[in-house]
Amino acid sequence: MQRYLVPDVMGTLARCGLAAVWLISGVLKAVDPDQTHVAVRAYDVLPEAGVEIVAAMLPWVEIALGVLLVVGAGTRVVAVASAAVLLVFIAGVTQAWARGLSIDCGCFGGGGAVAPGETAYVEELLRDTGLVLLAAWLIVRPRTLIALDTRGT
Amino acid sequence: MGGASRNDKKRRQEASDRRLAAAGIRPEAKSAPDRTPLIVVGAVVVVAVVVGLAVWFVNRPAAEAVAPAYASEVSGAVIAAGTGPVVIDVYEDYLCPQCERFAERYGDELTAALNRNEITVRYHAIAILDPLTNPEGYSTRAANAVVCSVPAGIFPAYHGWLFDSQPAEGSAGLTDEELIAAGTELGATGNFAGCVTGGTNSPAIAIETGTAAADPSLRGERGFGTPTVAIDGTKIDLNRTSWLQDAIAAG
Q1: DSSP element (H, E) containing B72
Q2: Which end of chain A has fewer CB atoms < 10 Å from its terminal CB, N or C?
């Protein structure tokens, strides 16, 4: 399989990169549930009950996606789920920007309202778009090295 | 995919298999699609959701709110609730979302300890987020209203209402009319409406905010912020969830 080595390595890097992002962002959110609640509420989209549920589950779902990517189990399915979650994040940040809200995305912990000059919507959207591209690679070509998916081959 | 095109695909597949067979190549038998990854992924995500819900359920405050049974009095912009031996200073801005979280997380615990006369809570009405509403100034108006609520005899209930109805940062905030209507509904006595519209306590709130912001012992990593809790002049780390029980045990 020597001739597939380059795309395999690229896929593996995409998988590990996405895994690292999910694990770090998930753990940072999980250790500070109040801050996560504030961050979710600041998007001003969901009713209070929805904020409670999303803030409670989001960190753990992120950690789950990260763990699955680390071990390389169901990479294509996880990549689809990752892209879906990222698109929701992009939609959330975009609506906050469009409505003139002044918030931090809370992507890696933190979050909530910030002073009007301190928003970073462009950086946040570019980063999320980059992560969607990593997920897209894995959806198109989920084959990677050192993965449970490719055990025995 | 329609039935016709599926048949078509099958026919072409068979034709190609025949050609391969004629050339002496045997294609690998196609096994049923492997659903293992889907099942593994599904199982792990379900576990994550269950963990999330369990953590939320454990941290959730009791549905049955503790009824307050303590007296409170006001001096300047500081509301002293209860008369217990352990004195806890709480600095709150009524627009601050973390203060709402603090009230939600520790409100019942504080009320229960106040009812048992174990603690005195000195609520400092702070306004550091005035620029974050449009028009500016909701923090001061809300802080003024909560100080007004003490002589009006509706204090702990009004304090709770302010956080339950907390407007979003960047919004207009609650109007004076809304602040007054809620007080009237809770049974405010005296000239509560005049106290709210007149901004009676605004100067005291400005002084209290300045004093708190200048107090080095209240400073966190990024200066003074809300909520800040101090016991005997020492800032409490609110990440230690047992801070209140520890303080009562030590006091």
Answers
A1: strand B72-75
A2: C
